[in-house]
Amino acid sequence: MQAFTAEKTELLATYGTDANRGLTEAQAQKNKEQYGENALTRRKPDSLLKRLWDAATEPMLLMLIAAGLIALAVNIVRRVTGGEADFLECVGVFVAIALSVVISVVMEGRSAKAFEALSKINADMTVRAVRDGQTVTLQSAHLAVGDVVLLSAGDKVPADGRLLESTALQVDESALTGESFPVKKDSQLVLTDEKTPLAERANMLYSGTFVTEGNGRLLVTAVGDATEFGKIAGELGNAEKSSTPLQEKLARLGKTITVLGVIAAGIVFAAQLIFFALHGGLHLEAVMEAFITSIVLIVAAVPEGLPTIVAVSLSINIIKLSKQNALVKKMIASETIGCISVICSDKTGTLTENKMTVRAFYDTRWHKEAAALQNEYLTHNICLNTTADLAPDGGFIGNPTECAMLRFFEQADTGNTYRRERENHTRLCAFPFSSELKHMTTISNVDGRILSYVKGSPECVLDMCALKPDRLAELCRVLVQAEEQAMRVIAFAHKELAEMEDFSAKEAHRRMESDMVFDGFVAIADPLRSDVYDAVAACRSAGVGVKILTGDNIVTATAIAKELDLLADFTALGKPVLGICRGMQTINVFFGGDLVQDWPGHSAIEGVDRLHSVQNAPSFLRELYGERCM
């Protein structure tokens, strides 16, 4: 039974819980015993003896140990037979072995302690849950399958679960899916396909994600290792261990030295036997002396100082990496970074800050400075038509996109704050954003006037406005230009209403959102980290290729790659006479194999009989291109 396809009542009955009263303490304990604790299973740390054994069984050290034992045996034989013994060489070999082992164990032990300290961060997270009909605060580790958890904006989801209730709930799943924008969740959604991808399970929340807006009640269906994050951790922990390039090279070197040493010793031994036989001196003592000489030759071929030099060099590498906030579990793995030829990097949160920022806004032209924000309808829309807020320290509370716009307004230095704007203007009615409508509407009393403010995806908002075709074409070009710079565009419009009425009625709502006045665009982006430019340049100068892994469309991904100078030029591959329109936020036309960037200007599609693959085209597109847009 999959939690995202099962009926809520079925899940509640299976886990012995109630949607309103939650688990009883007794049932919670029973569920913990049956389904496990809400904590990832930690691999038992290796003992000191195990770590010493692992360090001492490296190929080069094994060869060195063998050489040391042989040298010791030879010197013992010499001492017993009355010959001259040199135990100083044996001591040198074993000191070199000890130094290499100790350095490896000490450095890896320091790294292990650092990893342990990192793993304890956020271990004491508290959550609100319902137990025995009472709302209680619990440590996340004390949650059990079947618990009912209360979540609101800013909370971290403590376990996987099915939504029982949700109100305008949006969740940041970037840590799990890589999607930088919040995902809308719906407790009423019914899924029947058990193969539904994780990113499309809108009736589920997953451990490690964050609530950015709204609130909800979550029925915990998986904890600890059974969560999606737990499964990923388990797969990483069970991955087969492989040798690093340095280990493979040292192993080959050891085999080569051993083979060549044995061959050389065999040749020398055979030559001595032939010499003794030809000169009549072939007797037991001569044979033993020839054998010992050959064995010493094998020992002499072994580079005693190499393992120690390698250990010291790798230790220096670990220290350098730790100063750059990089931890290495196995010391020998620190060399592997020198063998990298291609780096495949995730975009969201790795190359970018994973924090929405307003890069520019458009009223009649693009502005990059917040000080140019003077349009009162645009500022009122930003401040009043939102449910987001900013924390005293500047942190985001609510939808990151809306928070970014509030921060942008605060930077505009208009002599006012968004909180004062809200206090001075009464909010009369609001229609929250939904994935179906793709816009949000708020009706406010502004200085005695009743104004309707709309913001949302450009195709929806532009469709509500009374705009001439040439103006529409200009705005579409503006959208393409913004997207080519890897920016997400939010459109704004307003309308003055004659009087307040029940706009929830279908016809009244349609009238309210028609013939609106277009106010402008706000372009938002997840900015690249400041140190990424130098890092990418350093990689390229070192001959290391950099690839971006992202779910963005080709235009946005290309813009980011160009900003990082990863693409010298861009050639779009496509078939002649093929147009693609994706919700008007992505407008690409491939014509003759080249990407036409100034569409929907008429010159860009001159000679094209019909644009294909354009589904659900907004009315203003149909007005512009008629039957050519289908």
Provide a descriptive summary of the structure in words:
- 40% of the residues lie in helices and 20% in strands.
- With 630 residues, the protein is an alpha+beta fold.
- Strands 1, 2, 3, 4, 5, 6 and 7 form a seven-stranded antiparallel beta sheet that branches.
- A hairpin with a 3-residue loop joins strand 19 (578-582) and strand 20.
- Helix 4 (59-80) packs antiparallel against helix 9 (284-301) and helix 5 packs parallel to helix 10 (306-323).
Give the arrangement of secondary structure elements.
Blueprint: H1 8-14, H2 25-35, H3 48-56, H4 59-80, H5 87-119, E1 126-131, E2 134-139, E3 148-152, E4 160-172, H6 174-177, E5 183-184, E6 204-205, E7 210-222, H7 228-237, H8 245-278, H9 284-301, H10 306-323, E8 342-346, H11 347-351, E9 357-362, E10 366-367, H12 376-384, E11 389-390, E12 396-397, H13 400-411, H14 418-424, E13 426-431, E14 439-446, E15 449-456, H15 458-464, H16 469-483, E16 488-497, H17 506-512, E17 517-525, H18 532-541, E18 545-549, H19 554-563, E19 578-582, E20 586-591, E21 594-596, H20 619-625
Parallel strand pairs: 8-18
Antiparallel strand pairs: 1-2, 1-3, 3-7, 4-5, 4-6, 4-7, 9-10, 9-17, 11-12, 13-14, 14-15, 15-16, 16-17, 19-20, 20-21
Helix pairs in contact: 3-5, 4-5, 4-9, 5-10, 8-9, 12-14
